[in-house]
Design brief:
The protein has 120 residues and is α+β, with helices and mostly antiparallel strands. The chain has 4 helices and 5 strands, in the order αββαααβββ. It binds flavin-adenine dinucleotide. The site of flavin-adenine dinucleotide has 22 residues, from β1, α4, β3, β4 and β5.
Length: 120
């Protein structure tokens, strides 16, 4: 069986920005690539909703379809306009996966995103 430490190191060393939230989308974990991508150290975002990353230009319908999928316990993937701590916008290609307990209730969400802003 894979030791838990290896799971942790794999997530910590991933080049993909990874965050874990509680069931209300409040961040409880962020990996180093999350800090490199967003500019926020984990301690700065813990307890905040993931909406701290929103540039507030993504159409509301996108978030509605996101939450429709997540509420139905389906993963969601899409592109959002995010905002770094510096204020700079970037395009995030994001996948969110609901984490369920044995009763099938959502306990957490796993978020994984990459900066896919094209640099010309
Ligand atoms: P909100 O007030 O959050 O509402 C927008 C719409 O979503 C409304 O229709 C509302 O009813 C619905 N909604 C919101 N929360 C819930 C909920 N808990 N259950 C059911 N419906 C809900 N957003 C980003 O902009 N960038 C990100 O990188 C990003 N990453 C995320 C990663 C994870 C793991 C999760 C769980 C969410 C992420 N979000 C991200 C979504 C974020 O939590 C917000 O819902 C979103 O930013 C919109 O915020 P808002 O304050 O504008 O609107």
């Amino acid at each position: 069986r894979l030791p838990l430490k290896v799971f942790l190191e794999a997530v910590e060393q991933s080049s993909v920005a990874i965050s874990i939230t509680d069931a209300s989308a409040q961040i409880i974990y962020a990996n180093p690539a999350f800090e490199r991508t967003t500019g926020y150290a984990p301690t700065e975002v813990l307890g905040h909703n993931e909406s701290i990353l929103s540039y507030k230009t993504t159409p509301r319908a996108v978030y509605q379809s996101m939450w429709a999928a997540l509420s139905a316990h389906r993963p969601w993937s899409g592109r959002l306009v995010n905002r770094r701590k510096s204020g700079e916008p970037y395009i995030a290609e994001l996948t969110i996966t609901p984490v369920l307990d044995v009763d099938g209730s959502v306990t957490h969400y796993l978020g994984m995103h990459r900066d896919v802003t094209e640099v010309h």
